[in-house]
Amino acid sequence: MSHSQDASVADDELKPSTTEGYKVGEKKTLDEYTQLDANDESLARWKASLGIGASGGADPSKPKLTLHSLALISDTAPGGRVGINLEQSKDKLEALKKNPITIKEGVEYSVSISFSVGSDVLSGLKYLHVVKRAGVTVDKLEEMIGSYGPRNEPYEKKFVQEEAPSGMLARSGTNVVRSRVVDDDGAVYADWTWAFKVR
């Protein structure tokens, strides 16, 4: 198969952008965050927003990050929402490339992910994806997820709206998407491939 037909997305295409002069803050454990100056009101509010100090949060037996689902959400498309269960077995996740979901051409939609944070505070999380059709990159998305602390209930993060491709070319093939969740150190927490078709 020639390179132009290769639909896979290489690792170096999923590198998050960096901001010149931005220094990644020192990572702290959940215990270290809990011990931070309790008299600082703004710091207390920030810690509360991450669930630090709340009961029912951290569980050392849980993974740092668990992805539950990815959804394409639209106010104008029939059904309004089409989703992928990311808690399936590895084989079933691999099969997502061969079983594309279908979205309506030309409608506005947002990518949304549902995830849980289990054992520690995760800071500077980003969601990235690269979309290829017939081996050619047709779209890239990089969105800040933010910083989250452990809690029992899942979080849901919805990203900026995009317009689904339209026209004969858009309908002519399968769009292969490689998605990744990373932190501001570049550590990869999730990496999976899926596909969609435009109708």
From TrEMBL:
InterPro entries linked to this entry: Ig_E-set, Rho_GDI, RhoGDI_dom_sf
Keywords noted in UniProt: Cytoplasm
Domain of life of the source: Eukaryota
Pfam families, per database record: Rho_GDI
Species of provenance: Pseudomicrostroma glucosiphilum
Family: Belongs to the Rho GDI family.
The protein, known as: Rho GDP-dissociation inhibitor
Residues annotated as signal peptide: none
